[in-house]
């Protein structure tokens, strides 16, 4: 079995040698970023084509091979780029998380989520970083391409097996919603001059919003609203715009109206049946109804989990209880990455994570789409998932670090 998987590593290596070494072709780093951010669709397709293999491991080994070929072909560009301090901070955070397994009471789960963090977050981010440093090419059109692929796969294979909410088979709808929110964001922000392409973009936007509403995911919606509120405020009072009266208000107002309309659609409609867009009860209504919120099981359970995470932090504030050590009443993580890091990695882990975030956020200066992506993925992590599941902010953070030296 090990030999079978090694074939994919060798395939990636020799393909890299042929494409980049013999034919001297360059590649857009945006293609890699888009592939990794919307990788669930590719993983699903591979599971159909290669049913006897683990799709994630196949992709991981293939890109290890590609990366090795790039490092061998372009050693100077690769290692010169990796001297970026932000990369050092993310690496230090990863190593400290690994070290914390020594005092973790649940090392098995700690290993599992650290492996996901490495395979789906840190390593893909390093690949994007290296590719950009070598070829100096990045286009957001590539992300739109992968977003379209993801939406098509979701439309064809999407199921409602998870409480009547759309997702790819076997996937939690929250992760589907996250991918769609990123796709919606880039469609809204990416400037296209051709009228034909603008019309095509509007069609894609309507389709992705429709699919997002069918996920009934509240955390990603809140993240979307908060980050776009930041965008509007920045547009209105940002120093580069010369203040409120010199900003181009038309686009800002239209964007604001779109957000308000989306919010009204999702929380104000009274009830829905199986044939409606929502395929079930309106889960968004709790966002404006305090009584419904207090009775919502997800919200109530999260309050308990968050309180337990704080208790663990108070009991072990400096080192934390170790990666995977949160375990509480059969639950492995508190569905809030900030509280998870506080409880499991303590103040030391929190500082390392904070330094990584700050460096990456600072790197998004001058790149509005990258900044919105980064902020949204941070907000995503405050409502669901664990360290391994919230891999998007690591990929985007490392991509932002790579692009910073371009602007």
Automatic annotation (TrEMBL):
<keyword id="KW-1133">Transmembrane helix</keyword>
<feature type="transmembrane region" description="Helical">
    <location>
        <begin position="6"/>
        <end position="23"/>
    </location>
</feature>
<feature type="transmembrane region" description="Helical">
    <location>
        <begin position="56"/>
        <end position="75"/>
    </location>
</feature>
<dbReference type="InterPro" id="IPR007016">
    <property type="entry name" value="O-antigen_ligase-rel_domated"/>
</dbReference>
<keyword id="KW-0436">Ligase</keyword>
<protein>
    <submittedName>
        <fullName>O-antigen ligase like membrane protein</fullName>
    </submittedName>
</protein>
<feature type="transmembrane region" description="Helical">
    <location>
        <begin position="337"/>
        <end position="356"/>
    </location>
</feature>
<feature type="transmembrane region" description="Helical">
    <location>
        <begin position="249"/>
        <end position="269"/>
    </location>
</feature>
<feature type="transmembrane region" description="Helical">
    <location>
        <begin position="219"/>
        <end position="237"/>
    </location>
</feature>
<dbReference type="GO" id="GO:0016874">
    <property type="term" value="F:ligase activity"/>
</dbReference>
<keyword id="KW-0812">Transmembrane</keyword>
<feature type="transmembrane region" description="Helical">
    <location>
        <begin position="197"/>
        <end position="213"/>
    </location>
</feature>
<feature type="domain" description="O-antigen ligase-related">
    <location>
        <begin position="205"/>
        <end position="353"/>
    </location>
</feature>
<keyword id="KW-0472">Membrane</keyword>
<feature type="transmembrane region" description="Helical">
    <location>
        <begin position="111"/>
        <end position="131"/>
    </location>
</feature>
<dbReference type="InterPro" id="IPR051533">
    <property type="entry name" value="WaaL-like"/>
</dbReference>
<feature type="transmembrane region" description="Helical">
    <location>
        <begin position="87"/>
        <end position="105"/>
    </location>
</feature>
<feature type="transmembrane region" description="Helical">
    <location>
        <begin position="143"/>
        <end position="160"/>
    </location>
</feature>
<dbReference type="Pfam" id="PF04932">
    <property type="entry name" value="Wzy_C"/>
</dbReference>
<feature type="transmembrane region" description="Helical">
    <location>
        <begin position="172"/>
        <end position="190"/>
    </location>
</feature>
<dbReference type="GO" id="GO:0016020">
    <property type="term" value="C:membrane"/>
</dbReference>
């Amino acid at each position: 079995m090990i030999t079978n998987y090694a074939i994919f590593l060798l395939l990636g290596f020799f393909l890299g040698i042929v494409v980049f070494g013999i034919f001297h072709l360059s590649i857009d780093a945006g293609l890699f970023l888009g592939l990794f951010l919307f990788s669930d669709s590719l993983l699903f397709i591979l599971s159909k084509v290669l049913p006897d293999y683990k799709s994630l491991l196949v992709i991981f080994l293939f890109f290890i091979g590609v990366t090795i070929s790039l490092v061998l072909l372009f050693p100077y560009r690769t290692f010169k780029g990796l001297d970026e301090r932000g990369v050092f901070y993310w690496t230090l955070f990863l190593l400290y998380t690994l070290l914390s397994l020594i005092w973790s009471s649940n090392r098995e789960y700690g290993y599992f989520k650290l492996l996901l963090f490495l395979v789906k977050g840190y390593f893909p981010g390093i690949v994007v970083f290296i590719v950009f440093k070598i070829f100096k090419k990045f286009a957001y059109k590539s992300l739109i391409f992968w977003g379209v692929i993801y939406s098509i796969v979701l439309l064809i294979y999407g199921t409602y097996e998870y409480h009547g909410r759309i997702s790819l088979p076997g996937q939690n709808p929250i992760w589907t919603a996250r991918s769609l929110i990123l796709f919606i964001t880039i469609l809204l922000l990416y400037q296209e001059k051709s009228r034909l392409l603008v019309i095509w973009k509007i069609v894609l936007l309507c389709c992705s919003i429709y699919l997002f509403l069918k996920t009934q995911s509240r955390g990603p919606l809140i993240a979307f609203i908060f980050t776009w509120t930041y965008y509007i405020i920045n547009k209105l009072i940002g120093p580069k715009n010369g203040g409120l009266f010199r900003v181009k208000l038309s686009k800002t107002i239209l964007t604001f109206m779109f957000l308000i309309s989306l919010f009204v659609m999702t929380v104000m409609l009274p009830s829905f049946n199986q044939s409606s867009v929502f395929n079930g009860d309106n889960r968004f209504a709790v966002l404006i109804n305090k009584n419904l919120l207090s009775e919502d099981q997800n919200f109530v359970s999260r309050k308990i989990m968050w309180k337990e995470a704080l208790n663990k932090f108070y009991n072990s504030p400096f080192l934390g209880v170790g990666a995977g050590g949160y375990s509480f009443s059969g639950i492995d993580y508190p569905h809030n990455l900030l509280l998870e890091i506080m409880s499991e990695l303590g103040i030391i882990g929190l500082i390392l994570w904070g330094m990584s975030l700050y460096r990456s956020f600072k790197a998004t200066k001058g790149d509005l789409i990258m900044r919105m992506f980064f902020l949204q993925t941070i907000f995503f992590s405050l409502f669901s998932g664990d360290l391994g599941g919230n891999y998007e902010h690591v990929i985007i953070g490392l991509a932002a670090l790579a692009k910073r030296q371009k602007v």
